[in-house]
Amino acid sequence: MEMIDVQEDKFQMSPSRPTRRNVLAWAPCAALVAGLSAARAEPSPGDDGLYHEPWFLQSFLDLRDDLDSAVAGGKRLAIMWELRGCPYCRETHLVNFADADITKYIRDNFEVLQLNLIGSRKVTDFDRQELSEKDLAQKYGIRFTPTFQFFPPSSGGIEVKEPMAREVARAPGYLKPQHFLAMFRFVRERAYERGSFRDFLATNG
């Protein structure tokens, strides 16, 4: 994991009484510094220990309904599996999702449902089986966090397939920003119909 050491600039201001001109001159600088500080502020985990993006899908946890709703909105459905204390989940939020271009692409093209690898919330699977998050993760063989599952552009016939055959792609583990965005493009562009993600990276960078 790459660590970036960022040191904030320190400003010295004259102890003399500020004039109106000085105040006006400093105002843009103060706004810039405040903006940078806000941009560097890290989101905090919720009560469940997971980081939550405000644009994540707010769901009744019925996967078929979520897929149909995403498709109706011209988007694809992805599930992000996370776990309390997972350092690479945190990295995904604080690095990958902090990139405005990445976030815009995902928000424009995907609905992302966040699930907890050991969670107890009840989820209705595509085949109408109701399971806890933990049991659903086991059903789909989810063993690493973060893991992203990507589903087809239609729910037609999905319920009769074996669980892992319902996905069109999976990203287990952390991907650096460039490859992370490429994975979402790989799914959105349906490149999985033409070859592997490795092939896609070889031709698209």
Could you characterize the architecture of this molecule?
The protein is of the alpha+beta class and 205 residues long. It has a domain at 63-204: Glutaredoxin, CATH 3.40.30.10. It is built from 7 helices and 6 strands. It has helices spanning 20-40, 63-72, 87-96, 100-109, 133-139, 177-188, 197-204, and strands at residues 76-82, 110-116, 122-124, 130-132, 147-150, 169-172. The strands form 2 sheets. It has a 4-stranded mixed beta sheet with strand order 2-1-5-6, sandwiched between helices. A two-stranded antiparallel ribbon has the order 3-4. A hairpin with a 5-residue loop joins strand 3 (122-124) and strand 4. Helix 4 (100-109) runs parallel beside helix 6 (177-188) and helix 6 packs across helix 7. The chain starts with 19 loop residues before the first helix and ends with a helix. The relative contact order is 0.12. Residues 1-40 have low confidence and may be disordered.
Give the uncertain stretches in residue-range form: 1-40
Provide mean pLDDT, rounded.
85
Say which CATH homologous superfamily of the domain at 63-204 is assigned: Glutaredoxin
CATH class category of the domain at 63-204: Alpha Beta
Helices, by number, come to 7
| Name of the CATH architecture of the domain at 63-204 | 3-Layer(aba) Sandwich
Distance between the termini: 21 Å
Task: Compute the number of strand runs.
Answer: 6
Helix amount: 25-40%
Q: Rough shape?
A: globular
Topology pattern, helix = H, strand = E: HHEHHEEEHEEHH
| Strand line-up in the sheet with most strands | 2-1-5-6
